[in-house]
């Protein structure tokens, strides 16, 4: 009697486990399976998107402007509200600012290169698949990204990556220091190499003056920063 | 470019710079002193206080506040165009002044304006995350004088140096 009850309980347990497994398999849609492939492509999902053009709606600044962006290899061109533009090298962060009568350089990336410049050297990237959703007609996987630097606070992003655009994030949310997340959208996304002429800068964008030359500031070597306790 | 220059006392030196950011509705007034009245003798004229003009044309309720220093800057950093020289460098709370209209608020975003008053150019830097990830937000040329007062404008039409503002 006792033996037959034990066998019944074991059979019921095996049956429940099999049922659960079946349900889990059923929940894994083709999109989810596909997204796992997409997720393992690179450490940072945007690293593989090297040739494209798009209209960026909004930015890290919380504005709602629509401005064109272009990327070809390591170069990214971002347009400004006054009609001028910047070209940033995504590896070195050197930026050319092209104004009507002059051209200047900077060592920092243009703000509209974000989120393509969100990961800096030494940063760690964690990725978590959060599901899938259709956004503006595109079947997207949703991914949460946490970028952690050696110092400072972790940066949290959520990407909606369109399958039909090689995973281009047509929508993203950025959690800044405070307040509700900033939403950035992209439209008119075209995957492919933009016109190389877009990334050239005028000849009046002179090379920088070297430290020590008259008029330039000589900086002493910075001390290694101590790790902050926050 | 230098709109007003005056001396408040025998040793206090004060110079006022008023500019509009060309192509945008906002401007800036930076007052550069040697702070003699506060600190006494021995200090150069490098201390900056001032405001970011956001009311006249942009239509916001509040102006921003500025504080900073005059210092030399390498030619490789905007707003210089391969020359190098002194700049007015001011931290500015334009993000807080323009958020959540009409109230303003705390955004956690911080702006810094760098002006080359000789070359007539400016650059804007910003940080948002509390780490070393900073950005070049914008750059351009300067027009002498603060933005003129206009009627009928409003923040929903404003084109500021940080972009058009999303109204709730």
Describe the protein's architecture and organization.
Chain A is an alpha+beta fold. Chain A has one domain (38-199): Lipoprotein localisation LolA/LolB/LppX (outer membrane lipoprotein receptor (LolB), chain A, Clam). Chain A is built from two helices and eleven strands. The radius of gyration of chain A is 24 Å and the shape is globular. Chain B is mostly beta strands. Chain B has one domain. Chain B has two helices and nine strands. Chain B has helices spanning 36-39, 94-98, and strands at residues 2-6, 14-21, 27-33, 47-53, 64-73, 85-92, 110-116, 121-127, 134-144. An eight-stranded antiparallel beta barrel of chain B has the order 2-3-4-5-6-7-8-9. In chain B, β2 and β3 (27-33) form a beta hairpin. Chain B starts with a strand and ends in a 24-residue tail after the last strand. Chains A and B meet through β6 of A and β5, β8 and β9 of B.
Low-confidence stretches of chain B: none
- Rg calc of chain A: 24 Å
Oligomer: heterodimer
Q: Report the principal-axis shape of chain B.
A: globular
How many helical elements of chain B? 2
Report the portion of residues of chain A in β strands. 35-45%
CATH H-level superfamily of chain A: Lipoprotein localisation LolA/LolB/LppX
Text of the CATH class of chain A: Mainly Beta
Structural class of chain B: mainly beta
Question: Helical amount among residues of chain A, as a percent range?
Answer: 10-25%
By CATH, the topology of chain A is outer membrane lipoprotein receptor (LolB), chain A
How much of the sequence lies in strands of chain B comes to: 35-45%
């Amino acid at each position: 009697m006792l033996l037959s009850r034990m066998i019944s309980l074991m059979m019921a347990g095996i049956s429940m486990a099999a049922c659960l497994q079946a349900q889990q398999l059923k929940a894994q849609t083709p999109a989810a399976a596909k997204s796992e492939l997409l997720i393992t492509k690179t450490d940072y999902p945007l690293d593989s998107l090297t040739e494209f053009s798009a209209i960026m709606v909004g930015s890290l600044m919380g504005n709602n402007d629509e401005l064109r962006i272009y990327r070809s290899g390591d170069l990214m061109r971002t347009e400004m509200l006054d009609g001028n533009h910047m070209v940033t090298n995504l590896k070195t962060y050197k930026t050319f600012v092209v104004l009507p009568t002059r051209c200047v350089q900077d060592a920092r990336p243009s703000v509209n290169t974000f989120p393509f410049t969100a990961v800096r050297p030494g940063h760690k990237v964690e990725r978590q698949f959060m599901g899938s959703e259709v956004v503006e007609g595109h079947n997207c996987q949703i991914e949460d990204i946490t970028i952690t630097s050696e110092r400072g606070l972790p940066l949290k992003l959520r990407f909606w990556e369109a399958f039909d655009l090689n995973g281009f994030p047509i929508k993203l949310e950025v959690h800044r220091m405070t307040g509700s997340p900033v939403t950035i959208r992209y439209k008119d996304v075209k995957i492919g190499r933009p016109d190389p002429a877009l990334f050239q800068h005028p000849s009046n964008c002179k090379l920088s003056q070297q430290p020590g030359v008259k008029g330039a500031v000589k900086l002493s070597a910075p001390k290694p920063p101590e790790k902050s306790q926050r | 470019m230098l709109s007003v220059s005056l001396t408040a006392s025998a040793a206090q030196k004060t110079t006022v710079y008023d500019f509009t950011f060309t192509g945008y509705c906002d401007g800036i007034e930076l007052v550069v002193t040697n702070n003699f009245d506060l600190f006494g003798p021995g200090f150069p004229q490098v201390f900056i206080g001032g405001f970011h003009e956001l009311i006249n044309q942009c239509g916001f309720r509040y102006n921003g506040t500025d504080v900073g220093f005059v210092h030399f800057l390498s030619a490789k950093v905007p707003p210089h165009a391969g020359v190098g020289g002194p700049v007015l460098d001011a931290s500015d709370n334009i993000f807080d002044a323009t958020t959540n209209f009409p109230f303003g608020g705390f955004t956690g975003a911080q702006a810094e304006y760098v002006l080359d008053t000789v070359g007539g150019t400016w650059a804007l830097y910003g940080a948002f995350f509390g780490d070393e990830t900073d950005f070049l937000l914008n750059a351009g040329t300067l027009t002498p004088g603060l933005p003129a007062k206009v009627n009928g404008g409003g923040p929903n039409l404003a084109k500021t140096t940080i972009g058009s503002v999303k109204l709730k």
